[in-house]
Structures are given as C-alpha cells and as structure tokens.
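Can't paste images in this forum, so I'm doing it all in text. The chain is below; anyone willing to post the predicted structure tokens underneath?
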Amino acid sequence: MPKDVVLSDAAAWEATIADWLRANIAEDPAHDVHHLMRVWRTARGLAVEEAQSPTAARVDLLVVLGASLLHDVVNVPKDHPDRCRASRLSAERAEEVLRALRFPEALLPGVRHAIEAHSYSAGIAPLTVEAKLVQDADRLESLGAIGIARCFATSGLMKRALFHGDDPLAEDRPLDDLQYALDHFEAKLLRLPATMQTAAGRRRAEARADFLLTFRAQLLAEIAGQA
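Text version of the structure:
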C-alpha cells in the first residue's frame, strides 16, 4: 500500500467526509456522492498499481482521499460561464470543509492543488503524484460504462438531443456537443486516454475508450436499422 498511511485512519476520514457530503451537497446524477466515492476508490486502486513499479513515487493516501471526495464540492453547471473556475472554487471550499473537520493542516496544500488540477477545462497541470492520481481517476469516470451513463445523464439535464438524427457521426457537419450527446464522444471523451498522467490510468482509459467505441458502433447499427 502506498506510503505509511494507517488504513484505519483513511477509513475513518473516508467515513467522516462522506457523512459531511451526504448532508451538504446537492444531488446530481453525474456528480453525486457515489461519483465522489468511485473517484476515491479508483484513485486508490491506481496508486496500488503504480506502487508496483520500482521507481514509484511515494503517495500520501490522505491527500488523495481528501481531494477525491471533495473535488466537485462546488458543482458549476457545464454550460455556466464560470465553469473553468469550478476546480478553484471547489479547492477553496474543500479547504474550508477539511479545516472545520480538523483534517491534518499540513496536507491541505496538497489537497487543494490536486483539486485545482483535476479539471479538464481549467487546464492546470498536476505537479504531484497525488494530483495525477486524482486527475486520472476523475477522467476515467468519463469513459467506459460509467462514462456513457454520465454523459447521457448530463446531456439530458441540459436538454441536449441524444444524437443528430441524420448525421450522428458528424461526417458532413461540425461536431457540436452542446447540442448532441453523442458528439461529446469525439469532441472530448475519446481524447482522454492521451491525457492520462499515470501508466495505470492510461491502461484503464484505453480499455474504457474501446468500450465507448463498441457502444457507438452498436448504436449506429441500430440507428441504421442494421441491428
């Protein structure tokens, strides 16, 4: 297990922060408590995989835990003009929450940076191994079966069409994922594997991206009446 964090301490902080989240965050099908818990579990799993390398950097799991669970504590809608500031707003709020919960003060800068750097739209480079793990874990949530479910759930909330009925692959029109959910696959999701920061994250991302392509092929076949 990465670094010498007592697992009982991590479990205790997980329970404490999760209790706070359940009592304080608004429900959103793509950014609910379950999303936050999945990001933490995935980041922890990536850390374990990365630790198998003889050159692996030391990881502070409590930093990963705090950042994973609070990275979306301020959830700015994707079509809001302040969307690019969401990770910074979440980092500020997360620091307030963790300080109130008496989280170790020395770990707060690491948590804050990991939250600021997790966002795709913010464009902040992750400078620590903890930030890289959190960024990878959050981006994996946009791929695979979970990624498909979250993509269409978010698009539904924003009243976007599932796909362009006459040209679902945007072969004769510009991609427009503000109007069509399926366009988001090509506009962003299928590009995520190339942005992964860890080898373990890249392996998972490539497998999940393949699943997106399989799903899209089946969807196109059904649209064409061929399946």
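Confidence is low (pLDDT under 50) at residues 1-6. The chain has nine helices and no strands.
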